[in-house]
Write a structure and sequence with these properties.
The complex is a heterodimer. Chain A is an alpha/beta fold. Chain A is about 45% helix and about 25% strand. Chain A has a domain of about 170 residues: Rossmann fold (3-Layer(aba) Sandwich). Chain A contains eleven helices and 14 strands. By secondary structure, chain B is of the alpha/beta class. Chain B has two domains: about 50 residues, Orthogonal Bundle (Helicase, Ruva Protein, domain 3), CATH 1.10.8.420; about 140 residues, 3-Layer(aba) Sandwich (Dna Topoisomerase Vi A Subunit, Chain: A, domain 2). In chain B, strands 4-3-5-6 form a four-stranded parallel beta sheet. In chain B, strands 1-2 form a two-stranded antiparallel ribbon. Chain B is globular and about 65 Å long. The chains are: A alpha/beta, B alpha/beta. Chains A and B meet through helix 5 and helix 6 of A and helix 7 and helix 8 of B.
């Protein structure tokens, strides 16, 4: 799978712009502040129908503009199909179109175009915060399973309802178990499925993760991803009853704190290097290698799950990675699909010699 | 420049569901071209409906007589009761013409975020009906949302001590559509609810 062209209207700094990409290797070459990262953000927008950086739709709107639109041509082997996303804040509405047909729900777009975005610049944000680590896991799993995302949305809704009940009634709930019961049942059922998906996905990428890490980082440290949850891989089929029990156990604490303390929204994804938690002990360089390994493993995982090689989007990797890691990465690229990377102008980097199609902004 | 009278009418119409400011203006201006009798008839019908239509004291259906036509129908099966969230759902099931049992309208779904708790719904009435012993089966037909599911689970839990058969309507594929067009959730629900051929 690859993206052959992208047309932007009022997206970030692009008022009107059109780009075409090589089916294998494209390097976007520009001085700073020309919108290199914005262009990758736009491409990744086609995956999630929202910003991969977590920006709000209003924030990606070109300054002073009324609406924005993205149009891309995606190629799957021999057949091409267009994806279009349009947002108009005056009606507060965002719509996605595939093959010119409007999708009933934005989440239906997920899975049409697969890509993996690596931006080493925000590695701290991504790997140091538990919520962000859950998010990269959610992005990985939801691209391989559409029902996962829908379960996650329903879970968050049921969670908001349960938290509201805890907030409104507090301790009174201890003598009203019937009020909690329906929400516990829903959270446990949806949560059980969510955790099972996460655990299975992690099991699938475990080996890849360490293999890529060894190739990128000049070290023999072992990288592992551990999922900390009341449910484990061994009792994956009993997830629902385990979560039901966990919710019941936490209730006395929950009525004091007035929010839900257990479930996939509180589970923790922890990366370890030689059994030491990376978010606590690793250097920035190590964290970058961890995130890069994760992204490459994600690409291979998606290829296995969907049958299509996802597009690799890599933001400013050469200024962020040291020369050894950069070289290791360049050597690994042929094993992946289309790659689109950005780089600051640097006379030392000869992209053309590396077979890249160079796109200057 | 619209007069005060027109503005009042526009504002009143604007309260209707699905009628925005533009449509409200269009309807108001159109109404001015009607015969006075036609306008009078419309206003009388509206007042008539408001004064005559009540809720059924048994099932909370909309009705002119109490109990409603469904509850008093001699050929309908009083041993089955279908629980729905809203009167609109009851009307939709009635249009199929397939269901011959009775109903119970809850008038909402449990939703703490909207300040709706079980006590705000017509649940006690349902439990009282079941306790009378005529009802043999309660069919839960709550909407397929998080709140609808929570409501169904709440009811199922309340019905356990009453030892009445409790069932839930199946969820599955829309008829006349393609399997390939169904979303994943519908597909997986349909798969879960499969039955022997």
């Amino acid at each position: 799978m690859y993206v052959s062209s992208l047309k932007l209207t009022n997206f970030r700094n692009f008022e009107q712009a059109e780009f075409s990409f090589d089916r294998e290797k494209t390097a976007i070459w520009a001085d700073n502040a020309r919108g290199k990262s914005n262009l990758l953000e736009a491409l990744y927008f086609l995956v999630l129908s929202k910003s991969g950086r977590g920006a709000k739709d209003r924030d990606v709107l070109h300054w002073g503009a009324d609406y924005f639109a993205l149009e891309a041509e995606i190629m799957r082997e021999d057949h091409a199909f267009p994806i279009r996303i349009a947002y108009d804040p005056r009606v507060g509405k965002k719509q996605a179109f595939v093959n010119h047909a409007s999708l009933p729900r934005l989440s239906d777009l997920i899975g049409e175009f697969n890509a993996v975005l690596f931006s080493p610049e925000d590695v701290d944000l991504v790997l140091r915060e538990p919520a962000q680590r859950r998010r990269i896991l959610d992005i990985l799993v939801s691209q391989s399973s559409a029902s996962y995302l829908s379960d996650l949305e329903l879970y968050m809704r049921a969670l908001a309802q349960r938290n509201r009940l805890l907030k409104d009634r507090g301790r009174a709930l201890l003598s009203q178990p019937e009020q909690m019961f329906p929400w516990n049942t829903q959270l446990a059922e949806l949560g059980g499925r969510i955790v099972a998906h996460r655990l299975r996905a992690l099991e699938d990428i475990e080996l890849l993760l360490n293999t890529y890490y060894q190739e990128i980082a000049p070290t023999s440290e072992k990288l592992k991803a551990l999922y900390r949850s009341p449910v484990t891989l061994d009792d994956i089929d009993e997830g629902q009853s385990i979560l039901e029990r966990a919710l019941a156990e936490k209730l006395p604490q929950e009525v004091e704190l007035r929010y839900t303390l257990t479930g996939p929204h509180r589970d923790n994804l922890v990366f370890t290097l030689d059994n030491k938690a990376a978010h606590q002990f690793a250097s920035k360089g190590q964290l970058k290698s961890v995130l890069l390994s994760w992204k490459l493993a994600e690409a291979t995982f998606l290829e296995k799950k969907t049958g299509w090689r996802p597009v690799l989007l890599m933001d400013d990797i050469f200024s962020e990675l040291d020369p050894k890691r950069s070289e290791a990465l360049l050597n690994m690229i042929p094993a992946f699909g289309q790659i689109i990377l950005t780089s600051a102008r640097d006379p030392d980097l000869d992209f053309k010699a590396q077979g890249f199609h160079v796109l200057e902004l | 420049m619209a007069t005060d009278a027109i503005n009042r009418l526009v504002a009143a119409l604007n309260r209707l569901p699905g009628i925005g400011a533009k449509s409200a203006r269009r309807i108001a201006l159109d109404m001015l071209t009607w015969d006075t009798d036609a306008v009078r008839e419309l206003s009388e019908v509206m007042i008539d409906v408001k004064t005559r239509v009540k809720r059924c004291s048994i099932c909370f259906n909309l009705t002119e007589g109490d109990p409603c036509e469904v509850c008093t129908h001699p050929r309908r099966d009083a041993s089955q009761v279908m629980v729905v969230d809203y009167v609109g759902d009851l009307l939709a099931v009635e249009r199929t013409g397939l269901y011959r049992g009775h109903y119970h309208v809850l008038d909402g779904r449990i939703s703490p975020l909207d300040g709706i708790s079980p006590e705000d719904l017509n649940i006690q009435g349902l439990l009282d009906r079941v306790r009378q012993g005529v009802i043999q089966e309660v069919i839960l037909a709550n909407g397929p949302t998080v709140e609808g599911d929570a409501t169904a689970q709440y009811l199922a839990q309340c019905l356990v001590p009453l030892k009445v058969k409790t069932t839930q309507v199946a969820r599955g594929l829309p008829v006349g559509s393609d399997l390939a067009l169904a979303d994943q959730v519908t597909l997986s629900r349909a798969l879960e609810g499969r039955r022997e051929y």
